[in-house]
């Protein structure tokens, strides 16, 4: 997906422009260190490419850019919950209209900040007041930091994830290290299992690793590179690939998409809403992920 060919809607600075991709407004970053792109619908990062490197972010060829649907691929923001502990699945942040707060740039890179606050629609789903700020730092590395602030008069609980889809050369020729030994298996009704130090795939995977290392490394052997994922504010890492049957079952995922993607997610996991992270009025919580090529 070559976003550089889209005509500019607005030129915000030397390095930052906006454009339309389908019905979605896209903030594009074009800096000597890297290029990146973020959809205002969902506050959704859809591209990150360090200079002279291959793309790190995977997007489905069949993703729907109608300014309504959650996008398949990229880095969806799952909030104020992760999974199907409430409806809609993965919360409402990935389906909401975010606003561009500010952008800054210098020789080191670009920082773009997006915001989302409670409104009539969000309060119908989740009756709390909040403010989210997503800071996206683009340089040789990409850091996405979700700042969650309770602007209500009482404490509330939440969970969430930065649901990163990594672009890889071949799912059959990769392995993952650093995810830790213990995982909750979503394909075995949440059974707690023990795994090895390395993970290679031959079929679908849907796991919540509960003791991940600070850095998880995806060894992308087909493209002869190692992708580093460093998470902060998380209590687990979700690893996911839908495999062939799963890809075919999703209308917004190309049938062979599973071959070139793998998810390593910075996750604040909770089995129920009541078991989530408690945040007091005025307090802020940060959930972050940093992607780079080692």
Automatic annotation (TrEMBL):
Gene3D superfamilies hit by this protein = 2.70.98.10
UniProt EC number: 5.1.3.15
List keywords of the entry alphabetically: Isomerase
A GO molecular function assigned to this protein is: isomerase activity
* Enzyme class, broadest EC rank: isomerase
| Record carries keyword Isomerase | yes
Kindly provide the name given to this protein in its UniProt entry: Putative glucose-6-phosphate 1-epimerase
UniProt xrefs under InterPro entries? Aldose_1/G6P_1-epimerase, G6P_1-epimerase, Gal_mutarotase_sf_dom, GH-type_carb-bd
Catalysed reaction, written as an equation: alpha-D-glucose 6-phosphate = beta-D-glucose 6-phosphate
Q: Which residues form a coiled coil?
A: none
UniProt cross-references to Pfam families, sorted A to Z: Aldose_epim
- Could you say which protein family the record assigns here? Belongs to the glucose-6-phosphate 1-epimerase family.
